[in-house]
Specification:
Shape: elongated
Radius of gyration: 28 Å
Number of strands: 13
């Protein structure tokens, strides 16, 4: 059974491990070096192991000491997290929250939403990780993640909220169309400079178009793309530069469509892209901070 005995000596032990000596630990704790040394010795006696390897010149953690140090740090962090949860009941959207977002979508769509929220809630302290891989929310301590695309199955411990689906359109710069003409059909695309999305091995991804006959989608493989680019924002830059036609998600080019810097080509061929989700560990769903932030992000990111 847990008792107060388990807490005795932890603070001097952790301070000594962090400082590397009894003297420096004593200075941090405003105690005497002798008091810190005796406290650690009593802890070692209670545990029945040596936590430090001592010599006249150095003091370092033993193997057992390193394992005990890591456990103590983890437990103390969990206690701090528990206190944060209790504090949230008084100030719901405040404190630290770790958010994982896809790189381009995160910069172009999630960051503006988070900047609004930070202005609205001055005590909110988001830590934002940008990555296009499917991060492990538990291993990387992510509270909320935005995901483009869905896994083959959602882990039971994860909650998810569907924000809608991308819309993919063909688009080009007016300067390109003035120079090369506007394609009137899928067949015409083979005679145009096309900018494809590149897989990891450099091969181009096919474009997808709606299939009127089946209600699904059909692939259109590009014979010889003018350019293959493995980054969404870089493909947009190539289109803006007038280098060709690309199939892009509307969230990438929304502002450029509004200003006319990019125009839609063959708009009847607009089709559904990947689904977008909010995902979070279910264990954190009931905390006021996570619940409120999920709803705030849902309002700002849902695709109508």
């Amino acid at each position: 059974m847990f008792s107060s005995e388990h807490l005795k000596g932890l603070t001097p032990f952790l301070a000594t491990a962090d400082a590397g000596s009894f003297t420096r630990a004593a200075e941090r704790l405003h105690l005497s070096s002798s008091a810190v040394s005796k406290s650690v010795a009593r802890l070692e006696e209670r545990l029945g192991v040596l936590l430090f390897e001592r010599s006249t010149r150095r003091l370092k953690l033993s193997d057992a000491g390193r394992a005990y140090y890591a456990t103590c740090k983890r437990v103390l962090q969990e206690l701090m997290d528990a206190e944060d949860v209790l504090a949230e009941h008084a100030t719901e959207l405040a404190g630290k929250v770790r958010i994982g977002v896809p790189a381009s979508y995160g910069r172009l769509r999630v960051m503006p939403a988070l900047l609004e929220l930070c202005a609205q809630y001055p005590r909110l302290q988001p830590s934002i990780a940008f990555s296009d891989r499917f991060v492990d929310l538990f291993e990387e301590r992510i509270d909320i993640a935005v995901r483009i695309g869905a896994p083959s199955h959602w882990p039971a411990a994860l909650g998810q909220m569907h924000l809608g689906d991308e819309q993919l359109i063909l688009c080009a710069a007016p300067s390109y169309l003035a120079r090369r003409g506007t394609p009137a059909s899928i067949a015409d695309l083979d005679g145009h400079d096309c900018i494809a999305y590149g897989r990891g091995d450099g091969s181009p991804m096919p474009w997808v178009f709606p299939d009127v006959a089946t209600g699904g989608q059909v692939e259109h493989r590009l014979a010889s793309p003018r350019m293959t680019v493995g980054d969404a924002e870089a493909r947009t830059a190539a289109v803006l530069a007038g280098l060709g036609v690309a199939q892009l998600a509307t969230w990438l080019v929304h502002e450029h469509l509004a200003t006319g810097a990019i125009v839609a080509v063959l708009p009847a061929l607009a089709t559904q892209g990947l689904p977008l989700y909010l995902a979070w560990p279910l264990a954190r769903q009931l905390t006021p901070k996570t619940g409120t932030l999920l709803q705030e992000l849902r309002q700002r990111l849902t695709i109508s």
